[in-house]
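Let us work through a complete example step by step.
Step 1: write down the sequence.
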Amino acid sequence: MAGVDKRADFEDLLPVMANKLGGEGLINELCNGFQLLMDKDRGVITMESLRKNAAFLGLQDLSEDELAGMVKEGDLDGDGVLNQMEFCVLMFRLSRELMQESRFWLEEELKGYGF
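Step 2: predict the structure and record it as tokens.
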């Protein structure tokens, strides 16, 4: 699948999943995805566990640099691994449509407080 933008594919599917499963269902599916990718002994996603388990989520064609970039982008506390919260935040950040919807609802809510 040379030339296919995996990030664009992901962005197209996450909103569909959100609409179909609802908020709680989507979070459950993201948690399941985290479980598939994590290092079972450490309870976090490491570069090694991501490389080893990426095929479960259709990411087997990503380069070492792309995998490292995913970990780096999602690693909010700088420990070099992704915990479950960091993984879920990263998945939302990668979905432009969900981020736009979130911004809309946040702005709507803030209007109620005079902002």
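Step 3: interpret the result. The radius of gyration is 15 Å.
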